[in-house]
Specification:
By secondary structure, the protein is mainly α. About 65% of the residues lie in helices and about 0% in strands. It has a two-stranded antiparallel ribbon. It starts with a helix and ends with a strand.
Length: about 260
């Protein structure tokens, strides 16, 4: 998610182990405040208006997907510069977002993949260090969810837009809140996908604040689905294909040979 590489906007010194991750809102950096606000606003937009503003959704999904893909690749490849990670991820994300606006069918499939990917991170987050402690196991688990979500996105397009945007939007909102609450939620999520993450999140249980964010995610996602199905469930985000005419009316022209032969046009 966008939040995973936006965490690089926070100074390295503030990335403490999870049991001491909470520093309070008064230590929030300017970069972290801006990033958190962006994630909250975009999250609410996706969660409740994903299918209504379909093109915007496609851009954001492309931005999230390609930006996150580049971040994961560079972070696991050994890139340690926070500025480089952030800038390149954003640039690639913008290009990917524009591409998904033009290739919306692929964008919906990617939305399905991102939705189950976010759901997988939420499941892993219920235990300090991850419900699945093996990095290989976590990778396989997330990969399977991504593939399933991608396939479902092609099969059930309309439902994927509503359910997927609600899930991704809810996750974005919760991630944005964590920039202000600083519970360690983002750092733990980052450790699931970044093998170079040095945070020791295997010691101790989840804090009450982290559990509150996990609960907020699923409640907000379900609420977003309900609102979108109720208000935008019949919204057509792609123009219907024209139906070819089946009833063709022919008119007869008088023939010089009388009724033996008739010409039609």
């Amino acid at each position: 998610m966008l939040a995973n590489f936006m965490t690089q906007a926070i100074p390295i010194a503030s990335k403490k182990p999870l049991d001491t991750a909470r520093e309070g809102p008064y230590n929030l950096t300017v970069q972290g405040g801006i990033a958190g606000a962006i994630l909250i606003v975009l999250g609410l937009l996706l969660c409740f208006f994903g299918v209504r503003f379909f093109r915007v959704t496609m851009f954001l999904i492309g931005f999230y997907f390609f930006g996150n893909l580049v971040y994961v690749g560079m972070a696991n490849g050994g890139v340690t510069s926070s500025t480089l990670l952030l800038v390149i991820s954003i640039i690639v994300g913008i290009i990917g977002g524009l591409l998904m606006v033009c290739c919306s069918r692929l964008g919906v499939a990617i939305l399905g993949a991102l939705a189950l990917y976010s759901l997988g991170l939420w499941i892993l987050g219920w235990k300090s260090g991850g419900v699945i402690t093996s990095s290989t196991g976590r990778g396989i688990f997330l990969a399977v969810l991504v593939i399933v979500g991608f396939i479902v996105g092609f099969i059930r397009e309309h439902e994927t837009v509503i359910i997927g945007s609600a899930i991704v939007g809810a996750y974005s909102f919760v991630a944005g809140v964590d920039f202000y609450a600083q519970t360690g939620f983002l750092q733990q999520t980052d450790s699931f996908i970044n093998s170079k993450n040095g945070i020791d999140n295997r010691v101790g249980g989840l804090s009450g604040e982290q559990i509150a964010l996990l609960v907020t995610f699923i409640v907000l996602a379900l609420l977003g689905m309900a609102v979108q199905f109720r208000w935008w469930g019949r919204h057509t985000f792609r123009p219907a294909r024209p139906v070819p005419a089946t009833n063709v009316v022919y008119t007869e022209k008088p023939s010089r040979f009388g009724g033996l032969f008739r010409r039609r046009r």
